[in-house]
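Report of the visiting student (M.T.), summer placement. My assignment was to run the structure pipeline on a short list of targets and document each run. The first record concerns Macrocin O-methyltransferase.
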Amino acid sequence: MANSIRKFIPKPVKKSLLTMTKVLNIAKVTLKSWRRRKVLGKHIQNYILEKFFDPNIGKEYGISKQTKTDLVKMFRLIPTKVQTATNWLYYVHMATVIFNISKKQKGDVIECGCWKGGSSAILSLICKEVGRKLIIADSFEGIPEDDDKHGHFYTHLSVLGYYEKGMYGGSMEEVKNNIGQYGKIKVCQFVKGFYKDSLKKFKKPLVFAFLDVDLRSSLEDSVKYIWSNLSDGSFIYTDDSCDMDVVKFWFDENWWKKNLKQKAPGYVGSGCGLPITPEYSSLGYTRKIKNAEKIFKRKNWFNG
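After the run finished, the structure tokens were exported:
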């Protein structure tokens, strides 16, 4: 019956119906893929939150479940009120790391690159809970001139990007106002200027660093002057994990030997970031390790 009916359908109509069928099939596949990504994203989110709410995380500082709940609410709220370029789950992850740093480890947290102060407000809330200062280093004029005129390659995202001088700028007054409204301004200290000048004489013990500086030159300058202040085992997170030109810095043996007299530390999350969202994240990290035997547990991989 169906075949006999098809005989009377004009060819243009048949072609249109075939096209519509293909479009509907593609839409079904796309919807299934979207649903799967959404489910996967929810699983990842729950995993990150479960780690954060582990009673042992922050136990040394007396951080309660209610305090963590209140913090998560602020982590989600602040990016809706202040321009930031980071996912709220990044801060849950970093808070988990900071809350797990021993009280015996003396030092503060430094943020290089704060834009409008959204990330600073969140980090100040975290620092307040662990009794550490947040040192905010920024030019407050936006980024400097980019030396990489060929552009920045985000290979995993198939993106080529360019930066212009002055991008991601926020005045100190604007940043302070945003922190005052949403964070804890009393725990903050400000270091104004481009890193090659402002951090040259920086001398304060540090236990954690968050660098969102965009340019390789700015990354070199900030790391060069804060590295000696970081305690053994410290985490250094960056928000530039997808930028292959910037990531290469962490593997540049010549630069590290010349400037800091050590091997390049490498970088976890190179090219696509830590698994915080299904497709990619811009968050990754390295660690300052002087004494691996002290920081890591020994594993005899090839013994039985």
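The domain at 53-295 is CATH 3.40.50.150 (Rossmann fold). The radius of gyration is 24 Å. I thank the supervising group for their guidance throughout the placement.
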